[in-house]
Amino acid sequence: MRTATGINLQVWALRRMEALGRQLRRTPSTAEHLATGLRGEREALFHLRTLGYTVVARRWKNAKLRGDVDLIGWDDEWLCFIEVKTRTGRDPMAPAESAVNADKQEMLRKMARAYLRAFPEKKRREVPVRFDIVSVYLQPARVEFDVYKGAFGWQ
């Protein structure tokens, strides 16, 4: 079947399917990377609970903003926006928390502002907010955590 432009739709469909197949064959490393991140978030969630946090949201998103907040929870009176960074090993030259750069911090601040808009205005001004980072190291025999409370602020 040919269209007005002369392109054979069957050939086009076959080429497109081949391209999609190539993409799928390339994704195992990406899928593995995502699975590692999800496992780290789950491990961090349970670890934070043992530290007394009450987690109220996981992977929170806002339709108008790009990105998500890994965990949102209360640590006593503090509302914490928590970024989780997971690695399969420790590298002293590049710890996991170093991946939370200025751009990531600004994205988290925007997400926090959006989350807080759901609070009544008076409560919004009264609730203390903190940005925490949890570095998760998935070691072969154990999982290790570094928790940085108040890792960065609103500025």
From TrEMBL:
The record, for Gene3D superfamilies, names: 3.40.1350.10
Pfam families noted in UniProt: UPF0102 (PF02021)
Please give the InterPro entries that the UniProt record associates with this protein.
Restrct_endonuc-II-like, tRNA_endonuc-like_dom_sf, UPF0102_YraN-like
What highest taxon heads this organism's lineage? Bacteria
Against SUPFAM superfamilies, the record matches this protein to: Restriction endonuclease-like
Q: List, in alphabetical order, the Gene Ontology terms for molecular function in this entry.
A: nucleic acid binding
Q: Which family does it belong to?
A: Belongs to the UPF0102 family.
- Name it: UPF0102 protein P4G45_14820
Q: Which organism is it from?
A: Edaphobacter paludis
